[in-house]
Amino acid sequence: MSPRGRRASLPPADHVRPEPLSSNGLVVHHYNREQRVKEYDFTTLPVAEPMQRSLAMLFAAQCTPHRWRSHGSSKMYWRQLTLFSSFLAKQDQPPGDLDELTGALVNRWWQSLSKTAGGCNTFDYTARLLRGDDRLQSGPVADALARRVPRPKSQTQSYAEAEFDQIRTAARRMFRAALLRIDENARHLDRWHRGDFPRTSQDWMVGEALEHIARTADVPRYVRGGDKKREPLAYYRRILGGGRAENTWQRLFLSRMEATALGILLLAEYGWNLSTIDRANVPQALPDQGEDGHPTYRIPVEKRRRGAGNYFETRNVTDDGADSRGRLVTQALQATRFARAAVEKLAPGTDLLVVWRSNRPDRDRENRDRHPSIDVFSFGLSHDDAQEWAQQLGFTGSPFQRGRRTVVAVDRREPTQHNQDTHDRSYALVDKRVQADAIEVIASGAEDAAARARTAVLLAQLTDAPDPEHTETATADCSDFDHGPYPAPDGGCGASFLMCLGCENASVHPGHHPRLTHLHHALGNLRSVLPTRTWAKDWGDAHAQLDDLKVKLGDGTWEQGLARVTDADRDLIDLLLNGSLDT
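The structure assignment produced for this chain is given below.
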């Protein structure tokens, strides 16, 4: 079951975004950040009309710019709702509305789901939506929906060396052929501009055609009768050797599959994941290239993170030869130069590196809501692009997830867009190839990670307000209870609440300040009555983290927190120090 979707033209600047929920309460329109719309018809769900209306209302509440900015988000939640609705429809007495759900029914639904990542996502995302209904805020149903969903470990493994070499070689062969083609035609166009060819010669006519392609991204065409297909004029078919894409616009622009090959090479060279490549900005050459004249590029990198904001970094790479890390950047800029120049004229300031000329712009515009297509040009890469590339070349599945794991865990053996703990826990220690090839290195890395965890000071994020998506603990809020550095044997987090401030999943907002200032004071009192070694072993790390928090908050904020300590804060800290709130 799929949503009925249609593409909308961009509204004028003063356009008021329509309400997501239609007047009949059964159809939701999701406008993405580019103001294109996708329609979801809740009458297609196999549940009673009151249930359809309730689900539509919850769904529509998320179809706002600060919630779901892309159609990918709404489509993913729609898939989960269709699965949930199908489950309800199969019951002997299906509930007519959300207030007829029972805790037992929710638990039965959970038991019916596979305990794979897909099943966990179905429960997690659907429960997140349902908890938005006022009728499900408390009681057995609310408790059942608040179930901790243990996340299965990723089954993704790195490629064998020979297999990844084959993928890299195929991508290099495809991209290099495209680069040579574009360079050759660029040289021909330069010679035409210089007047090197006699007018009306074959070379001159090809140069004139290339100039038209560079300006308009195509050759002149006419509409063929009957099927209304747009065909190149006979003159251009004759001088260019045919009317297909490879004879016409591909002389100066990358195709979608060639852009995907470039993305795979960026993955292999820099370890970027697909979303980073999809959003990659154009690297800028530093103004001072040094005495040798070799360009050094500043590469801005963004990785989007759930809950904790986005990660940004800038890296410099130098092109000082064929095997240098900067050579691929030079080649990417060369291969996309005509496309980027055309896009700059159409939409100044569009600064994306991976740009390609679409053979079917209407289809690509419909399927891509991350970056709006500009005329016939599309940007970035998707999972579907990678899947199609792999299928065409005879490989199994998108190469990006396994390829990134190969580059990060096996080839580079160092963090890329994540910290060392994440690298050890999520990449190196779980990869079978790393385990087989470097048992001693893995053991050493695990010891180092444990030492860092023991000696780390404050790793929690400081925020101005609580995030409703986070879980409150005794000392902080948690963005990801199931994927912390101290997993419990049966899933979830096995750490003491005293260790929350040393976890990157934790966040501290002003509501925590009173209890944390009181905890700092209480630990100081314990220091005066306990042997030094005992206090340092049991309470030293927590006290050091609170010392660091005090420095980061400043004396004024710290004193305000002390002044706001309540009896409830004192009781909570007493329970924590007495061992009644261990985890």
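Interim note for the steering committee: The two ends are 43 Å apart (CA to CA). Confidence is low (pLDDT under 50) at residues 1-15.
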